[in-house]
Specification:
The complex is a heterotrimer of chains A (185), B (548) and C (239). Chain A is an alpha/beta fold and 185 residues long. Chain A is built from 6 helices and 7 strands, in the order E-H-H-E-E-E-H-E-H-H-E-E-H. Chain C is built from 6 helices and 10 strands, in the order ββαβββααββαββαβα. Classes of the chains: A alpha/beta (185), B alpha/beta (548), C alpha+beta (239).
Chain lengths: 185, 548, 239
């Protein structure tokens, strides 16, 4: 294996309002990851220990819906830095489970979870806590807040679908994920 | 009644009328009635009685006189003299008006000048009896030639001859789509069936439109005669008037007219002693705009949920209860009797090459003379707005005219000199529609106008097909965002994409035309959308932004 | 009584096919394995023509017509798969997903849902119109079945099967436009319905997870439709 590949693709992944299942599925690519690493530089991700969002990226994979202000801030920053953005998995593509609170509304949701059902009521999280980013009124799919270039459906998308998408992109082709995955897959 | 009997009744009635030198006509259509014209009529009668007039004077209840913005309207007709029209009449003016009749000097402060273009530029066929006759009197209608067309057709013409006159007239459906009436009747006549139906579509629902209402309230027999002629020409034996329940006065007068006509043998079995039988029933619409659509209207009469069905099959093939059915709009039917009487060629001599006859418009919005007008096809929008309509109030300038109701479009000043006909309006991005005409001044916000009509379509969608049910909601939502200054360029692109899908894929005319107000305002007033959006884009890669 | 059916020839997607004048375009297309997507259509029930997915282009006709309701005509030239039709179909499916709360991953019909598989077939990779997130009710009052309005697409298959096959007419549609919804009897709870025979036909014909059997977990609900062609065939022979 050559370590002098000059043009590695600079990649970020982010895990916002999701279950981390899509990242698990990403890891389920298994030994093929070794091939991918020849072409990829993972600069920012829950899988690497980098705190700052890099200034320039070729590709960002977003797992999860945009649910709080911190999610929004980071997704916008990553979008501005990335040439290509993929919504990875149903939460990022459709809002999925995180969006199930949307029809209920934020306040009634809080009341139910932290007041009515709670043994000890400390304070009302709806009032905000300086240490916790405030939730948005609605959990949104990524494309409602930034432009998204490719959508990979599935809960989670199968490892094969993720591998296919990445290898096609590396090869300079535009993949069609609906061949291998669907909503809820 | 035979033609001779009709003639006698008319003659007798005219002679009776001639014994009274003065007639005071009081508008008793909905507009003036809402301003207590019925009480004015009572006080006029009382004043005449108290005065014990030396010359006999009769107060007559008539239908719409047109200039609704100046109502209540009262007209004094004295034999051998010019009529005097009074505007904004109140109960307190009654005795003064009655006094003026015997003095022979009009009440100057109330006089409404009828030599202005509003009256002079009109040409009346549909509305010829409107405002002249008492809608509740069969004799009144007969005395102005009513039912003579039916008598003539039954006595002298075959159904095919009636159809060919209508075909030769070039009359096109006045409900909106402009389908040639003769062709529709021909399709219907070709379908052999024991039972066939004629339906009069009086479910007038466009915001700002009140043409059919005025005809029904002012000259109901004209519609019954038109329906009977349509039935004779197409082999139908049963008719329905589908009228919206929000028109109680029209319903009352129509019911009365049906009763009177049936009693006189002008409806029912063996009309005029011939083998032709035709009855008419009334069905009330429960306030759904979509029920003006033919197939939804049929479902509603059948007692089902008012939802449209895909066409083909067309109602002329399989309509009400699966039988051949012909549905004509009120105004279309009002044109039939004159066409049969005077011939198709006479009608075809009026109007433009492809749009014959006249059209009734309801002028509303930012215009001095709101009301009902009838003009020949081919008149320009400028003549309608500035001559007849008297221009824009408060010294403001004209911005757009919306024709065709929620299915129509907004046309800017560059189209003012366009001749109004079906094809020109369509090419300009609007439609003739049923005749609502809403004028907007420079202060009108066109995005708001589009949003208003989309809200109307959204709340009137029946919910059957997906593009209309969800598409109108989404388009309204996007218009809302843009109007509130929250919209992005991506929202505008999505709105345009939705317009195309909803127009192309909706099941019925409601959905297919719902995008029209958006499309026409985007075509002529795109800047207003862009101003509201400004520089707002959904965030993207900065490299791309820089390159943009 | 029996007249010889009039055989005509038409062209669908460049293939010359024969049909009778009573056949719909959809019937003939399916007979020849030409795939036209549908949602509200179900063989054995009356046609409804509302989902607009089976719209096709017909030469000489400016409007798109639904293949399920349009009968074949001599020399008709039909196109079922143009770029324009594909775009419209995609948008219609997106509108459906955005209309109510279709969360596939937690649906009992996941993997056996017609809406879900159509989305995949038609290449719907995301929903470009904003989601509505309406607040909708579940009706679990029936002993055996459940109605989840969140997943209803208003295809009215349940209404039609209940009326036309079972003869109960328990289901109908209420409300207008975006507020339209299915309901049982005169808006009673399903469990309190006096007309419902608990036959379950509505559940089996429902294309999504709106009508389901109770006691099924995610992806466990598989619908059985064999009864419908069977009953239709039997009844056709014995009217």
């Amino acid at each position: 294996m050559s370590t002098t590949t000059p043009q590695k693709i600079k990649v970020a992944t982010i895990w916002i309002d999701g279950c981390s299942g899509c990242h698990m599925s990403f890891l389920d690519i298994d030994e093929r990851l070794i091939d991918l690493v020849q072409h990829i530089d993972l600069l920012y991700s829950p899988l690497v220990d980098m705190k700052e969002i890099p200034a320039e990226l070729d590709l960002t994979l977003v797992e999860g819906a945009v649910s709080n202000e911190h999610d929004l801030e980071r997704v916008v920053a990553l979008r501005k830095a990335s040439k290509f953005m993929i919504a990875l998995g149903d939460c990022a593509v459709t809002g999925n489970v995180p969006s199930m609170r949307n029809p209920i509304g934020l306040k009634p949701c809080f009341d139910r979870a932290y007041q009515e059902m709670a043994d000890i009521v400390v304070n009302d999280p709806a009032d905000g806590d300086p240490g916790i980013p405030a939730l948005l009124e609605m959990a949104k799919p990524v494309h409602e807040v930034v432009t998204v270039d490719l959508f990979v459906q599935g809960c989670p998308p199968p490892a094969d679908a993720i591998f296919y998408v990445l290898s096609e992109l590396i090869a300079g082709r535009v993949p069609d994920p609906t061949l291998l995955t669907r909503f809820g897959a | 009644m035979t033609p001779e009997e009709l003639h006698d009744v008319g003659q007798k009635h005219r002679e009776q009328d001639a014994k009274t030198p003065h007639h005071v006509r009081v508008c008793m259509a909905a507009g003036c009635m809402s301003q207590k014209s019925d009480e004015i009529k009572k006080t006029l009668e009382k004043a005449i009685k108290e005065k014990g007039a030396s010359d006999p004077c009769k107060v007559k209840c008539v239908g719409c006189m047109g200039l609704c913005s100046a109502g209540p309207l009262v007209r004094v007709d004295t034999e051998g003299q010019d009529s005097v029209m009074y505007q904004n009449v109140t109960v307190d003016d009654s005795s003064e008006i009655v006094q003026s009749i015997s003095d022979g000097k009009p009440v100057e402060r109330l006089v409404c000048d009828t030599n202005v273009p509003f009256f002079a530029k009109q040409q009346k066929i549909v509305l010829e009896n409107v405002g002249e006759i008492d809608p509740d009197s069969l004799e009144d209608y007969i005395s102005v030639g009513g039912y003579s067309a039916l008598g003539k057709a039954l006595a002298e013409m075959s159904p095919a001859e009636v159809r060919s006159e209508v075909e030769a007239s070039g009359l096109r459906g006045r409900g909106g789509a402009g389908f040639p009436t003769g062709l529709k009747w021909g399709m219907m006549a070709r379908n052999e069936s024991e039972t066939k139906y004629i339906i009069c579509n009086a479910d007038e629902g466009d915001p700002g439109a009140f043409m059919d209402r005025a005809v029904l309230e002012s000259d109901p027999h004209r519609i019954l005669e038109g329906m009977a002629l349509a039935a004779y020409a197409t082999g139908a034996n049963h008719g329905y008037v589908y009228i919206r329940a929000e028109y109680p006065l029209a319903i009352k007068r129509l019911k009365n007219a049906i009763r009177l006509a049936a009693r006189a043998g002008l409806l029912g079995h063996h009309i005029s002693g011939t083998r032709f039988s035709f009855q008419i029933e009334i069905r009330l619409g429960a306030g759904a705009f979509v029920c003006g659509e033919e197939t939804a209207l049929i479902a509603s009469i059948e007692g089902k949920r008012g939802q449209p069905k895909p066409r083909p099959p067309f109602p002329a093939q399989s309509g009400l209860w699966g039988k051949p059915t012909c549905i004509n709009n009120v105004e279309t039917l009002a044109n039939i009797a004159p066409i049969v009487n005077k011939g198709g060629a006479w009608f075809a001599s009026i109007g433009t090459e492809k749009s014959k006859g006249t059209k009734v418009f309801a002028l509303a919005g930012k215009i001095n003379n709101t009301g009902l007008i009838e003009v020949p096809m081919g008149i320009t929008l400028r003549e309608i707005v500035f001559d007849i309509g008297g221009g824009i109030p408060d010294g403001l300038s004209f911005k757009a005219v919306q024709t065709g109701g929620p299915s129509g479009g907004c046309l800017p000043d560059r189209h003012l000199d366009m001749a109004v006909d079906y094809d020109n309006l369509r090419d300009a991005g609007s439609i003739m529609g049923s005749g609502g005409m809403i004028i907007m001044d420079e202060e009108s916000n066109m995005v708001d106008v589009a949003r208003f009509f989309m809200e109307f379509c959204m709340s009137e969608s029946c919910g059957k097909c997906i593009p209309c049910r969800v598409g109108t909601y989404q388009m309204h939502n996007l218009l809302d965002r843009i109007a509130e200054g929250q919209g992005t360029h991506e929202d505008l692109a999505l709105l345009e994409e939705l317009c195309i899908t909803v127009a192309c894929t909706s099941l019925c005319g409601l959905g297919q035309t719902a995008p029209n107000p958006v499309l026409s305002t985007l075509r002529y007033f795109r800047n207003e959308y862009l101003d509201l959006i400004g520089e707002q884009h959904i965030p993207a890669f900065v490299g791309q932004e820089a390159s943009q | 009584m029996s007249t010889q059916p009039h055989i005509i020839t038409l062209t669908i997607d460049g293939r010359e096919l024969s049909a009778t004048v009573d056949d719909s375009i959809l019937t003939i297309a399916r007979q020849h394995k030409i795939d036209i997507p549908t949602l509200c259509f179900l063989e054995g029930l009356s046609t409804w023509g509302a989902c607009r997915l089976c719209l096709v282009e017909i030469e000489g006709t400016p409007k798109l017509l639904s293949a399920c309701t349009t009968k074949c005509v001599e020399n008709m030239v039909v196109k079922t798969d143009t770029e324009r039709l594909k775009q419209h179909r995609k948008m219609i499916i997106e509108l459906l997903f955005a209309e109510r709360n279709h969360i596939c991953s937690v649906c009992v019909s996941n993997g056996a849902c017609e809406l879900q598989s159509l989305a995949q077939e038609c290449g719907v990779d995301h929903v470009s119109v904003p989601y509505r997130y309406p607040s909708l009710q579940l009706d679990s009052s029936h002993d055996l079945f459940r109605l989840d309005n969140n997943r209803c697409i208003l295809c009215t298959r349940c209404v039609r099967v209940c009326d036309e096959i079972e003869g109960a007419h328990t289901w109908d549609v209420a409300g207008r436009g975006i507020d339209a919804h299915v309901l049982t009897d005169l808006n009673t709870l399903w469990g309190d319905s006096e007309s419902c025979t608990s036959c379950g036909k509505c559940v089996q014909v429902c294309p999504t997870g709106a009508l389901v059997q109770k006691g099924t977990a995610v992806a466990e609900m598989h619908k059985q439709r064999e009864f419908l062609p069977y009953l239709t065939k039997m009844r056709r022979n014995h009217p």
